[in-house]
Write a structure and sequence with these properties.
alpha+beta; Heat Shock Protein 90; 5-stranded antiparallel sheet; 4 helices; 5 strands; globular; Anti-sigma-factor_SerPK; EC 2.7.11.1; sigma factor antagonist activity; ATP-binding
């Protein structure tokens, strides 16, 4: 092993798969021996990104697919959560705390803010009718990686 590892996971855009995505990413990242706090940060960020893809990108259409790509490089894990759904019309507005395009769902509008605060790096890109891609990076401080 050359110090890196990667995985790709695709699943139906169903809300019940959000928990599966959290667990799968947590299991993959466990090889870095993260602290409970680091693991919870990662799981929360994955939950937010996956939920956004399902609810906003695909309007809860279970025939669509969400993809997570994860890569471990040294003491860091990079995650990309992507969909090929509706896209985001105004990315700057969507990144504002408390903004939500679906107030009727009583969601907080804090998804991007949470991801940005829990990760060391956060980027989002989107195209109308071309989907959204959230790229995040987290350094695992405990750094007892098996692949160093």
């Amino acid at each position: 092993m050359n110090g890196s590892n990667e995985m790709t996971l695709s699943f139906s855009a169903r809300s019940e798969n959000e928990a599966f995505a959290r667990i799968a990413v947590a299991a993959f990242v466990s090889q870095l021996d993260p602290t409970l706090e680091e693991l919870n940060d990662l799981k929360t960020a994955v939950s937010e990104a996956v939920t956004n893809a399902i609810i906003h990108g695909y309007e809860n259409d279970p025939t669509c697919e969400v993809t997570i790509e994860a890569r471990i490089e040294g003491d860091s894990v990079s995650l990309t959560v992507s969909d090929s759904g509706r896209g985001i019309e105004d990315l700057e507005l969507a990144r504002q705390p408390l903004y939500t395009s679906k107030p009727e769902l009583e969601r907080s509008g804090m998804g991007f803010t949470i991801m940005e605060n829990f990760m060391d790096r956060f980027e989002v890109s989107s195209r109308i009718d071309g989907g959204t891609r959230v790229a995040m990076l987290k350094r695992i401080e405990s750094k007892k990686a098996l692949y160093n």
